[in-house]
Amino acid sequence: MVAGFTVNALQSALQGLNVAQQLIDVTSQNVSGASTPGYTTKTLAPSDLVAGGQVIGVTTGAIQRTVDENLQKTVWQETSTSNSQSTISTALGTIQSLYGTADAGTNFSTYLTNLQSDFTQLSASPSNATLQKQVVTDAQTFAGSLNSAGTAITTQRNTAEAGIASSVTTINTQLQTIATLNTQIASAINTGTGAANLEDQRDQAISSLSQQIGISTYTSANGVMVVQTAGGQPLADTQAHSLVFKPQPVGADSSYPANLGGVYIDSSTKGYDLASNVGAIGGVLGASLQLRDQVLPQQQSQLDELAEQTANRFSAQGLTLFTGPAGTIPVNTPTSYVGLASSLTVNAAVIAAPKLVQQGTGGTPIDAGDNSVIQSVLNYTFGLNVNAAGTANVPFNTTGLGATGSLSIASQLPSASTLTNFAQQIMSVQANQSSQISAQSSTSGSYLATLQTSFSNSSAVNLDTQVANLTVYQNAYSCAAQVITTEQTLMTDLLNAVQG
Length: 500
Known about the structure:
elongated, single chain
């Protein structure tokens, strides 16, 4: 009976020693992994080993992670939102910095106002050659500033196109990583070897993925995490559904889907096209598509409308001061003057002969002191008056704009407006748009940081706790080892007594 008791005690001690060693190993792993990005606290819960209704020892299960999965999903969702807003904010901020500021007097709105002032001065002294040349100079400055603004928008559209390509590459890399890890995790769970560290790696890949695109996830019974777009399109399980995108140079008249590519899942011919619903994509990819296909084309249409109406309103008063690059003014159909802001120029004939500012470009000479053309420009080009023939200025087009003829600025800009007011409104609308998205990006970034801190506090390693646990487990190991030593001594004494 004593021998049986001793053997049972020895078995229990050995089990305790084994469990204590496993707990020490897991705790040591927590301490060493504390500084590793994405590492979550691992736990190993001992449980009683029962036989015949009696506790005969202790055992452990698989290593588990400490993760608040609901909070984690919220972090991923906000990561997508924050990166989307940040991408748009950066693009619009870049354009605003290139426009110049009203205070500094270095933007197309101010330059157009300066041009109006030039005509006011010239009206009092129509034959003044210096003032005539000043009109030409300031007209060139205005056209140049509008060119720069239009070019800045096209540049940002090309930046967005490159951003789409880069984002697709990153997404495909992370989807393949997730699919590979899903396969490994399912295998580990099936064999009972534990998959906690693999799950950490998968979470890191999904976190990186969420920066690029909005996602939804769920975990199947075999441990595979199924990843979908926010709209429910499949992206990865144990297989990756790669995205397909073919980047193209973006011009002022480029548009989707006419000559700019979509982003397809699996196939460019049969796959679902994410670009068909850019508002539901999220992340850097969604923001880049929005910039390329919606936000920036709308801003460009505002500038093109100003360029077209400026050229038309001058020409209607007998002074063709501005033209397109071919020396003509496009017809007043929105799709015919897409990109005009980037190419508007001062009439070469007026540059060569500044006196045409006073004479007009109709070819009929008037007296050098006659200010009738100049006054018509002031009254009708820059004003809203009806001319002598009873004809009012053509209103600004606010719908049917852009290369696709589908853009509208009606909610932002008035169709009946003076040139200078329309230019000022463009500056105001675009500045407010940039300011709003910047504020949203800042708010979203702060919220994301708060969520990340909360998630880290709930899942990351607390070194103080782990060091304290390590001491407890080491003491338990020592106690179990001492029991084994004592049992070995008892067994030896018992054997000696029996043999003696």
